[in-house]
Amino acid sequence: MSYICQTCQHKGKQFPNGRCPACDSHNIERLTSSGEQIVKKKRSRLDVILLITFWALFLYAIWKNFLQ
Ligand SMILES: [Zn+2]
Questions:
Q1: What pLDDT is recorded for position 67?
Q2: Where are the alpha helices (DSSP H) in 1-68?
């Protein structure tokens, strides 16, 4: 388990008291074991609309290809 500082991008396992040892910032995030930043699961409304639009167009294209 490691962390990254969002202020100075310092990465490390030791962030005593939830503070960055390099710049003393509280703005830190947890990283996964592979070093990737955890993607927030919450989608914005625009993301959902774009996703639905994309799928609608995609399915429409398939339907048109097979039925016409
Ligand atoms: Zn920092």
A1: 81
A2: 45-67
